[in-house]
Amino acid sequence: MRFVFTFLMVSLLAGLGAQTTVDFESFGLSTGAFLNGSDGSGGFSSGNVFLPNSYNDEFGSWSGWSISAATDVETPGFTNQYSAFTGGGYEGSTTYAVTYTAGTGSVIKLEGEAAGGVVEGLYITNGTYAALSMLNGDMFTKKFGGETGDDPDFFLLTVKKYLDGALSTDSVDFYLADYRFEDNSQDYIVDEWTYLDLSSLGNADSLLFTLSSTDNGQFGMNTPAYFCIDNLTTADMVSSTAVLPAKSVSVFPNPATEAWQVDWQLPGEAEARLYDMQGRLLRVNRIVPGNNRLKAAALPKGMYLLRLQNESGYLLRRLVKQ
Length: 322
Known about the structure:
Layout: H1 2-13, E1 20-22, E2 34-35, E3 43-46, E4 49-56, E5 61-68, E6 96-100, E7 106-110, E8 119-125, H2 128-136, E9 154-163, E10 166-167, E11 172-178, E12 188-189, E13 194-197, E14 206-213, E15 216-217, E16 220-221, E17 226-234, E18 249-252, E19 259-264, E20 270-276, E21 281-287, E22 290-295, E23 302-310, E24 313-321
């Protein structure tokens, strides 16, 4: 039922329009450098987002966000808190953002044209500090899976949104590590940049990122509360939740073997998103007035959900691949 609800939220709220991708390269960091807020700036602006930072001069500590070009994937422990476990940014870029959630979560605020609109998604990976802690354990944390490898451990990121001062009840979850599989060979710690679709959260003023783990102690979570992001994309417009007339589109044949023909009968382009029945986004296509071909041949047999959206609203179609 959760996936069905997630899909409905995607269908109702995700928008179409201009986009801005924040890749953090504008900070001009050299390899190995980082910005942790020690200048008292209180955060970092890039594109249409602001990443708050809280720096403590007395202890030289920080929480919230830092900007990093660190590359160390081997050194364990707190001294290596700025490195991504990938050794760099998305697709080999230099710079990315790293967060320490400090128990209460980290926030990204939307600004400019993105304010009040949709965040399409972003790329996520583990920080080296957290990844090596989970992989090997240390004096403060356990090795994920335990001595036998059978402990059902996990490290979970949960994303919610604020809109008009209210925190959403809907959320998007992403496992930074998951050892809950019966087959231990399927256990994993994320070690590459992985895309997380956030469009299901809909219109937002800001995003809240929180972490949870199965490794907890007297003072809360033992797993280091760090992860890294890159290439955050905002839709830069408030999405419409109006339902378009059913006659706006016809899709045939349905069921289909090779392709569905999507006959878009409204002026202007639309965006078509194809989801499987678990709510996972499989494909994004631009739809133009008239007949459009949506390939089906490479898809497994089964049922799919198609969401079509323009600036005026959205509509849904359930598709079947034979």
